[in-house]
Amino acid sequence: MSTSTGKIISVIGSGLIGRSWAMVFLSGGYRVKLYDNQPGQAARAIEEVGKQLEELQQAHMLRGELSAVDQLALLSSHDDLPQALEGAFFVQECVFEDLEAKRSVFQAVEGYVGESVILSSSTSCLLPSDIFSRVQNRTRCIISHPVNPPYYVRLVELVPHPETLPAVMDRTHALMTQVGQAPARLRKEVDGFALNRVQYAIIAECWRLVKEGVISVQDIDLVMTEGLGMRYAFIGPMETMHLNAPEGLEDYLRRYRDGMRRVLASFGPVPEFSGEEAKAIIQEMCELIPSDQQHLSARRERRDQFLMGLAKLKK
Questions:
Q1: What domain count does the chain have?
Q2: How far apart are CA 74 and CA 27, in angstroms?
Q3: Are strands 155-160 and 141-146 parallel, antiparallel or unpaired?
Q4: Averaged over 22-33, what is the pLDDT?
Q5: Per-residue pLDDT for 104 more than 70?
Q6: Residue 225's CB: how many other CB atoms inside 10 A?
Q7: 74 and 49 in a common domain
């Protein structure tokens, strides 16, 4: 029997990320209490989760040892915060990306849980020291930043508050590993965390290359999907360097450091991502994929199907 049997995790917020986290925790056999302050919203979210679990089961991509029906039976909806938090050992906040909203949530949550309960936020870029500023006991606070959609993309960035205890990081890391995610530890907080800092660096240079007429929107995406992305689905940039020279990383740096520094020095300023340059790039993008909901939904479904297949392959 799973050691998670009977253990409760509270998920605060029943939007896309909240539903995704609920599904991840359910796959590990945890009881999940899904809370939303909008009456009836959490109940409606459960219906959506049920549909997704059934679809995953039919596609043979359902995570965990339990059936879709058994996983859904572990999920309950709540409009009352104290009731949603009762018995939980871990709280995953998933409200919208607004600092004041998140601060208020944790200020309220702390009043209903014991000192040993871990308080975790799904924020994508807000700093732990800002989010948890109103929490009295900040030693049990942590960021668990998932990648959208977290059911298929397993990375979770664990970012500590300056006061977070090492044991809290260890317990969160163990939980995320147990439910099938791939937790990466940040040793200290930094604006944007690791994933978004790397992602924004790539976006900025791609934007500059398109803006300066070096390459088209379609072809810069091809550089990633048929080039770097092929590698990075399985090995990261550090290992890539290590494997791309006959004698490893030291040899790579000896061969390529001067060229790397020359190219990096040629990068332009951070783009504004607005004005005429933005209009031109948006137009080019929308000629490839129109921005109406029908086309965007179809492409998102395609993305998720590809990610599902890649996740299956990586397994």
A1: 2
A2: 10
A3: antiparallel
A4: 98
A5: yes
A6: 10
A7: yes
Q: Give domain status of residue 214, yes or no.
A: yes
Residue 134 has pLDDT above 70, yes or no: yes
Q: What is the CA radius of gyration of the chain?
A: 22
Domain limits for position 76: 8-185
* Other beta carbons within 10 Å of 176: 23
pLDDT bin (cut points 50, 70, 90) of residue 148 is: confident
CB-based contact 257:263 (threshold 8 Å)? no
Quick one: CA dihedral 122, 123, 127, 130, positive or negative?
negative
Q: Note whether 35 and 116 are within 8 A (CB).
A: no
* Domain-terminating residue out of 124, 150, 185: 185
How far is the C-alpha of 248 from the C-alpha of 250, rounded, in Å? 6
Q: Are 215 and 223 in contact (CB under 8 A)?
A: yes
Is 109 within the bounds of a domain? yes
Residue 32 and residue 81 in one domain: yes
145 and 12 part of one domain: yes
Pair of tokens at residue 257: 């450091």
210 closest CA partner among 197, 199, 223, 198: 223
Match 């979770």 to its residue by tokens.
Answer: 156
CB 238: neighbour CB atoms within 10 A? 9
> Do 35 and 121 fall into the same domain?
yes
- Cβ contact 75:34 at 8 Å: yes
Residue-averaged pLDDT of the chain? 95
3 domain residue, yes or no: no
